[in-house]
């Protein structure tokens, strides 16, 4: 499965959430509301989730292994930097 499109839908300079993106796989399946978050060790992606119980969240969709997460994160960060630089 290949990432065929990454769309940065919202960029924010305020707060820890830096952007919200949508990712399309094989021109057939899309995942919305992936967040780019500024953490203590730099940027990371947070998959779409829903609240279950008091303060607990569960991912709705997520990569099964770390290699897939790294590949997805790399594509998302590349597009985020491109869009961010175009806005400056």
UniProtKB/TrEMBL annotation:
It comes from the Bacteria. One of its GO terms (biological process) is sporulation resulting in formation of a cellular spore. The keyword Cell cycle applies. InterPro entries: SpoVG (IPR007170), SpoVG_sf (IPR036751). SUPFAM superfamilies: SpoVG-like. Keywords: Cell cycle, Cell division, Septation. Pfam families: SpoVG. Belongs to the SpoVG family. Could be involved in septation. HAMAP family: SpoVG (MF_00819). This is Putative septation protein SpoVG. It comes from Crassaminicella thermophila. The gene is spoVG.
């Amino acid at each position: 499965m290949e990432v065929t499109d990454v769309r940065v839908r919202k960029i924010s300079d305020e707060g820890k959430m830096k952007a919200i993106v949508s990712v399309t796989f094989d021109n057939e399946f899309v995942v919305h509301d992936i967040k780019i978050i500024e953490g203590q060790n730099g940027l990371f992606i947070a998959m779409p989730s829903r609240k279950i119980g008091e303060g607990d969240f569960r991912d709705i969709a997520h990569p099964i292994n770390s290699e897939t997460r790294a590949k997805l994160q790399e594509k998302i960060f590349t597009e985020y930097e491109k869009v961010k630089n175009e806005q400056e």
